[in-house]
Amino acid sequence: MTLITEDGSGRADSESFISLTAANTRHTALGNTAWTGTDAAKEAALRRATIYMEQAYRSAWKGARTTIEQALSWPRYGVTADGFYLDSDAIPSDVANACADLALRALSADLNEDQTRAIKREKVGPLETEYSEYSPQTTRYRAVDMALAPYMKGAGAQLRLERA
Fold first, then answer.
1. How far apart are CA 164 and CA 158, in angstroms?
2. Which of 13, 65, 91, 150 would you label with 134, given CA atoms 20 to 30 Å apart?
3. Quick one: 88 exposed, middle or buried, by C-beta within 10 A (0-12, 13-18, 19+)?
4. Which residues contact 8 (CB under 8 A, 6 or more apart)?
5. Bridge partner list, 48
6. In the 8-state DSSP scheme, what is residue 19?
């Protein structure tokens, strides 16, 4: 099944923020040798990465979707990043690249694995593990979060305070 990539028109059937060709180009340029396998496996990874992005970031994006019928959160209107308004008929390169980066991870791991209770203490012979009570149980993809921050509500908001 051929991957249907969002082209900026707000397609109702799109499955990915980036095409397989563009993802291949990105991973080749970055020297990501783990981006291997059949085109079908890579397309499936791009679909899983897009699903993850929709679940993790959908309610945090700035602006609004351009149509109610579109399958994915992008394209959007009313979005500013770095002080500039973004075109409402395009997918920002950071969003597309984040999808490719997550797809690389999706080739070998579940991006949304089920959670279990956090281990407080585990002792096996003389070895002992104890996790912080406040450490997150979910995996965070910091590089992706940082790349997408300009497109998120409340990200980078600063106010200048002056005394009267």
1. 19
2. 150
3. middle
4. 75, 87, 89, 90, 91
5. none
6. -
Task: List the end-to-end C-alpha distance of the chain, in Å, as a whole number.
Answer: 64
Helix 93-106 / helix 39-57 crossing angle, nearest 10 deg: 120
> Which pTM does this prediction carry?
0.80
C-alpha distances in angstroms, 163 versus 109, 160?
A: 52, 10
Kindly report, residue by residue over 86-145, the tens digit of the pLDDT.
999 999 999 999 999 999 999 999 998 766 656 666 777 788 777 666 666 667 778 888
The Cα–Cα gap between 13 and 4 comes to 7
Of the candidates 25, 45, 47, 54, the residue with the CA atom closest to the CA atom of residue 108: 45
Residue spans of beta strands (DSSP E) within 75-144: 76-77, 80-81, 84-85, 122-124, 127-129
Query: Which residue reads 């997150």 in tokens?
Result: 136
